[in-house]
Specification:
Jelly Rolls, four-stranded antiparallel β-sheet
């Protein structure tokens, strides 16, 4: 944790010249040294330096008092009550306040009235933001996972400016992607497209089993799902079924036949087998009459897998119906409607030029997040005109070329903020309202601002209407992107669908097929949904953030409830469930998402779980493990071939190099040991009862996971408030926290305290904070 602050500390030391003043030195000798002698020197002074940390070994007092790295470690450990140790004399409340205030005032040079907003690095759109932006601008679903390499991460998130670099190869990919996106938005004949209807896969139902739909159809069972589509015009139609194959993680011999009909006429038939493509399609044609027509999707077993192999499942993602194909009926493509705001272009050259300018001004101002200057509009209009004049080209071709150029422009690919006084680090300025609109929209929607935000920015009324706009944006369906992206990274929820787990070993089943009867791949998605719904509910309903830890409710469907051992939940739909009678459940630490991503493939990991809580809940991460640390399995002996996790950790902790850090993380990890690596509750391990009792490094004792959650949500609430504030602010502004952000974090934690821990208030507080609203003058 300390090392991540070093760059800023070093810069501050070089540029600020903040060598300790005479007053600071006198204050240190008079007020601080007595506290250090009383509470710290027994371990870190007078010749003793536990953890290789000494507080009185220095040659120059002035430099010592300007050593921000040193005092940052003191400040963080005192604030979180890690130091002094819980079995030593503790600082009185006023003594702790005095020491903390001195470090903040005399060492960090913080001004609570004018917090430092920090440095801003120009940010490239990451894959998720690019995908969201082209969908919001053009209605195009573009798979950036296939088009671009994975984004680097920093501080746990993939939207950090310092790691979002741009290589020449990636720039080439963006140029190619721009052409692909506009081709999808404005395909040939977009102004006269054959009418199209998209039907979700889960809309296809089994008439004999209403709870069964097209989202999960086992190869082993003959079954049909169908949907009645209202056909307006008689004629020939194209039916495209987009689907995917799930179940086995390795190749299998399991096969089935897929048969699709529409209105009783055959559309297509194909053999299904193991296939890891995200989207596969079957396309065919069928004559349909006007009125209600049934589209039916049927699968039947073809070849069963070998005994040791897993079974496969078929999932309908979407069915696209287009027709009639003869051209008797036409409609404007979605992208066409979004771009050509006034419909088809005029016939005259002057009219087309005027229309091109209107389109460019409307589209590009949103894409660039600022009003277009006239010279740029002139250039884009000239491109439209020149391309349209080429043989065989049309006005639409010219617009496509101009938009493609915009999508490959740095003004779209990078989030650039206007700097009124560049290269003046001492100057702190308020963001212009267009930059504020962009920060706001990328924070909550993960995408470009909409017309309302840009209109308010244009009229310099966005700040005056900020609370109302935040309310509006959080009510918009696009706000689910904040939940998905933030939770997906802070809690690693996005990893639960792909993390390697051996259900066979964990559940003690003879084969993967047997294990899949208890734990199939749908549960991974269910777990992610549970975690996202809890966060979303707490945000929208203005609930206290500590309910993320201690909630006595959750959102479950029948499948996940059965896996957890909770009765009374029926159906595929997720629903609120009272967990009062299940005190072991409730909150993110007892959800399958957290429990799986903090486990090893074949067993639990007290270390991973403890480290995760320290880093992401309490904000007090342990240092990296020293090199050469032996694996836990080395604890297995002839006399104890199947030790419990606690027994292995006790042997591991006997090693001097391991003892210190494990005293911090092991009690937490072992407190969660009642949950196996897949998230099921258990009372014993290898026939021995599980002991989940423990004591935190800060002294609080607990007997089980329910008591541990209670401590984290109450006695350690301030630590959680601060940690969550740091994580969410990091995500919002795209940079890691520095020592000078402590003033802002204090303000956010105070706001949480005054507003009963409301997550909604934390979001508002971040948006109103100095790091979000302001910037330094430096580039």
């Amino acid at each position: 944790m300390i090392s991540r602050f070093l760059p800023a500390l070093l810069i501050a030391g070089i540029t600020g010249g903040n060598l300790a003043s005479a007053d600071s030195a006198e204050s240190y000798k008079k007020d601080i040294v007595p506290l250090l002698e009383t509470y710290c020197y027994s371990c870190h002074g007078e010749g003793v330096s536990k953890g290789k940390f000494s507080m009185d070994e220095f040659k120059d007092l002035s430099k010592h008092l300007d050593d921000k790295k040193h005092w940052l470690a003191v400040w963080r450990n005192i604030r979180s009550q890690i130091m002094p140790p819980s079995d030593e004399d503790q600082l009185a409340t006023d003594e702790k306040k005095k020491l903390m205030a001195w470090i903040e005032r005399d060492v960090f040079k913080l001004d609570p009235a004018n917090p430092d907003p920090g440095r801003v690095t120009i940010r490239r759109l990451n894959r998720t933001e690019y995908s969201n932006a082209v969908f919001d601008l053009l209605g195009v679903e573009y798979d950036t996972r296939e088009a671009f390499p994975a984004d680097d991460t920093g501080y746990g998130f993939d939207n950090i400016g310092d790691v979002l670099s741009m290589s020449p190869l990636l720039m080439e990919k963006y140029i190619a992607a721009a052409d692909e996106v506009v081709a999808l938005a404005l395909p040939e004949g977009a102004a006269a497209q054959v009418p199209r209807v998209d039907i979700e896969g889960k809309s296809f139902k089994n008439s004999g089993a209403p709870d069964t739909d097209g989202s999960w159809m086992p190869f082993a069972k003959s079954q049909k799902v169908s949907f009645e589509q209202d056909i307006k015009w008689e004629g020939e139609y194209q039916i495209k079924v987009e689907y995917s194959i799930h179940g086995a993680t390795e190749a299998t011999t399991d096969e089935a036949m897929l048969n699709v009909t529409a209105g009783g006429a055959p559309v297509g038939k194909v053999s299904l087998g193991w296939d890891q493509r995200r989207v596969i399609d079957l396309t065919g044609k069928a004559p349909l009459k006007a009125g209600k027509q049934t589209i039916e999707i049927a699968i039947s077993p073809a070849r069963r897998p070998l005994p040791a192999e897993e079974e496969l499942f078929f999932k309908v993602q979407r069915v696209i119906v287009q027709g009639p194909l003869g051209g008797s009926q036409q409609e404007l493509a979605k992208g066409y409607r979004m771009i050509f705001v006034d419909g088809p272009p005029p016939d005259t050259v002057t009219g087309k030029d005027r229309y091109a300018r209107k389109i460019m001004r409307s589209f590009v101002s949103r894409a660039f997040r600022k009003p277009l200057d006239e010279p740029t509009i002139d250039k884009l209009a000239a491109i439209v005109r020149d391309v349209s004049a080429e043989p065989g080209k049309t006005f639409q071709d010219g617009i496509k070329q101009a938009i493609a150029i915009c999508l490959a422009s740095p003004r779209f690919l990078f989030r650039v903020e206007f700097q009124p006084e560049p290269n003046n680090p001492a100057k702190i300025v308020q963001l212009d309202e267009y930059s504020l609109a962009s920060r706001l929209s990328f924070f909550i929607w993960g995408s470009v601002p909409d017309d309302e935000l840009l209109s308010l920015a244009f009229n310099t009324k966005l700040r005056a209407n900020l609370p109302a706009q935040v309310d509006r944006m959080l009510k918009d369906p696009r706000a689910k992107r904040l939940t998905k992206n933030f939770i997906g990274q802070w809690l690693q929820a996005r990893d639960v669908e792909t993390v390697a787990m051996s259900a066979k070993t964990i559940l003690g089943k003879p084969t993967n097929r047997e294990a899949a009867k208890t734990f199939d791949s749908r549960l991974r998605s269910d777990m992610q949904t549970e975690t996202e719904m809890l966060f979303d509910f707490i945000l929208r309903e203005k609930r206290p953030v500590e309910e993320l830890i201690s909630a006595r409710y959750s959102f479950l469907n029948e499948r996940l409830a059965n896996f957890y051992g909770i009765d009374g939940v029926t159906g595929e739909e997720f629903q609120p469930v009272d967990l009062t009678e299940h005190p072991e459940r409730g909150g993110i630490l007892t959800q399958g998402t957290f429990l799986m991503v903090t486990s090893n493939p074949t067993r639990t990991s007290a270390v991973k779980r403890g480290l995760f809580v320290l880093d992401n809940i309490l904000g007090t991460p342990a240092p990296p493990a020293p090199p050469g640390v032996p694996e836990l399995e080395s604890a297995v002996t002839a006399g104890n071939a199947h030790p419990t996790m606690r027994e292995m950790m006790e042997i591991h902790r006997k090693k001097p190099e391991c003892r210190g850090c494990h005293a911090r993380m092991d009690p937490i990890g072992l407190g969660l040991e009642n949950f196996n690596a897949l998230g099921q509750f258990r009372s014993s391990e290898h026939g021995k009862p599980i002991d989940a009792a423990g004591q935190l490094l800060t002294g609080e004792k607990f007997s089980d996971v329910a008591a541990l959650k209670e401590i984290l949500a109450t006695k350690r609430r301030q630590d959680f408030y601060r940690c969550l504030s740091e994580k969410l602010l990091t995500y919002a502004i795209g940079r890691g926290m520095e020592y000078y952000d402590s003033t802002t974090i204090d303000q956010l934690t105070d706001r949480l305290e005054k507003n009963k821990g409301s997550l909604r208030e934390l979001v508002q507080g971040i948006i109103e904070s100095a790091p979000f609203q302001k910037r330094r003058g430096d580039s």
